[in-house]
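JOB MANIFEST
job_type = single_chain_structure
chain_count = 1
residues = 414
[input]
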Amino acid sequence: MVQLSTRAKLAILADAAKYDASCASSGTTRRDSRGGKGIGSTEGMGICHAYAPDGRCISLLKILLTNSCIFDCHYCINRRSSDVRRARFTAQEVVDLTLSFYRRNYIEGLFLSSGIIRSSDYTMEQMVEVARSLREDHHFRGYIHLKTIPDADPDLIHQAGLHADRLSINVELPTESGLKRLAPEKDGVRIEGAMSRLRSDMEDGQDARRKYKSAPRFAPAGQSTQMIVGADAADDRAIIARASSLYDRHKLRRVYYSAFSPIPSPSAVLPLKRPPLLREHRLYQSDWMIRFYGYDAQEIAAATDAATGCLPLDIDPKLAWALSHRATFPVDVNRAPREALLRVPGLGVKAVDRILSSRRHRRLRLDDVARLTTSIKKLRPFLIAADWRPLALIDSADLRARVAPPARQLDLFA
């Protein structure tokens, strides 16, 4: 193999990592080097937070250890049969790159994933060594996220959790049938078994910390996973149900959704074009409804199209649910409980908290609500205020047209 420079490897392996969406650094332990020892920080001045236009955090050094892989998953650009240029970092090269980027204030931490080389255990050993060296040899205080390998020895994954802030194991596809068809060398039972062990290790670590302050932290930012959307026949109902199940069983911090993207020299079993990116966005909105707004998977499934099983693309899922449950509305902004206000389309968590705080002092009028939110147009049919009642507006046949965002002409040179 031709020897590549570090810069050439970085170009290949950073580009190969772009398909991994789960790179946000929220929820970790606060650490810094103000005590005089160590390098880096997870907060404070001097940390650059950069976000892509789709909202994904890119302030991490996000790379693969290698894009070589012994597996042949149909949807993966780095699969064994793919004709792509291969590269591989050593553990020391990743450590040096991370420290160099951090000293230049380019990043706030490291997101490291990898293809499988030699074996799952060998690959996991290399990734653990990167995290161990950063923490122990260089006293790195920044954020570390390791994408772990479910087939690796549990002791190796445990070691990863002692050094990393967050661990993640990809479930890959929403359904077992889709996984068998597109990634036959991977096993959904083993993946969920590894996620379950991670949850147990995290709970054991939390119990130990409650008893002994000197007990080591284990993956303080929790675990996450990622699902590919649109590579198989799974509809949004199946995806939402799987995500809800993963949250309940494994106490995940996040489920990330990645719209399938066609790859060079694709397998014949893959779809010819990618799903709309807006579908990915709607799934993220439904995910927030489960995590912050009190909806369950069955309620969100009720907002999907009966024929396709997918969420509507022209309106958000919260509005779609409200339109199919008009008997729930309107709600009185001065009397309704927090749970009911959170279901009003157009009211976010912060706006509801402001309303609850303000109504302690006075009865709110529609103008008051308008000052506490970004837009009042969507709210009017669903709210009762001191000076406002929608009367028959909630039952009007053209309500969807009234509250849906207007169609917009696309810019030719956007």
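[summary]
The chain has two domains: 6-275, 325-403.
Confidence is low (pLDDT under 50) at residues 43-54.
exit_status = 0
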